[in-house]
Design goal:
alpha+beta, 2 domains, 6-stranded mixed β-sheet, elongated, 3-oxoacyl-ACP synthase
């Protein structure tokens, strides 16, 4: 695999993850705003308890979406720190790791993504597999869920 093709794969994986995070940010902001509007639009009625309960529930939904927004922004910031031009000697954030267990993009937790007809799983360094892979090099083996796997390529 050439340097240009590995950089192209990394760039595509990075862009897919960034696009996904931008959608998460947009969705969380909209849901948070909708919940806030709902809380603000509750009218006081003669049944005061109902008003207070509805307002509190709307506020809880808003807070939950605010937390999701914060997580999405944190993940987006992690992605924006990745330089796809760098080819590391050991697994770190931004690495693409090809193993006998599958192909991984070490960045944030995400779904499987297909690039050039190959599937790559986006894995956070906080995930068990991400923790195991950190610091490993091409040719190294590792134990995961009771099975031994090897790293065939790292870029």
């Amino acid at each position: 695999m050439t340097s240009d093709s590995t950089i192209a794969i990394k760039k595509q994986l990075l862009q897919i993850c960034i696009d996904h995070q931008l959608k998460r940010v947009e969705h969380a902001r909209k849901a948070m705003d909708d919940a806030q509007q709902s809380a603000n639009s509750e009218e006081r009625s003669t049944a005061g308890d109902k008003y207070d309960t509805s307002r509190a529930m709307s506020q809880n939904v808003r807070n939950m979406n605010a937390k999701q927004l914060q997580e999405a922004l944190k993940d987006l910031a992690t992605l924006q720190q990745i330089n796809p031009q760098i080819s590391p000697l050991a697994v770190c954030v931004g690495s693409v790791v090809k193993t006998t267990a599958g192909n991984y993009f070490i960045a944030i937790s995400g779904g499987p993504y297909t690039v050039l007809k190959e599937t790559y799983y986006s894995v956070s360094t906080a995930a068990p597999l991400g923790q195991i892979l950190l610091g490993k090099k091409a040719g190294d083996t590792f134990l995961f869920r009771g099975k031994t796997f090897s790293i065939s390529a790292l870029f």
